[in-house]
Write a structure and sequence with these properties.
This protein is an all-beta fold and 73 residues long. 0% of the residues lie in helices and 38% in strands. The chain has strands spanning 3-5, 11-17, 20-25, 35-37, 48-52, 57-60. The strands form 2 sheets. Strands 2-3-5-6 form a 4-stranded mixed β-sheet, with no helix packed on it. The chain has a two-stranded antiparallel sheet with strand order 1-4. A hairpin with a 2-residue loop joins strand 2 and strand 3.
């Protein structure tokens, strides 16, 4: 299970395509992402994310510890 730690947001769905993650949220208010962890505990840096809500679309600049295998750069 993917776990998202943040403030004042409930996540319905998380999808990933290449280096783009889409979050479908109930509402958008003071969103602060701490981290996203996968069940396998793998590590990968995701360059951009987009939050899609009832009313607005907002971009998060960087999200760490997300999908995929561990990468060395």
């Amino acid at each position: 299970m993917i776990q998202l730690i943040n403030r004042k947001t409930i996540i319905h769905e998380i999808t990933k395509s290449h280096n783009h993650i889409t979050f479908n949220c109930i509402f958008l208010q003071q969103i602060t992402f701490s981290r996203i962890t996968s069940s396998m505990g793998t590590d990968q840096q995701i360059h951009s994310a987009e939050l899609i809500t009832d009313s607005k679309t907002t971009k998060a600049s960087k999200i760490n510890r997300a999908f995929g295998s561990k990468t060395n750069q």
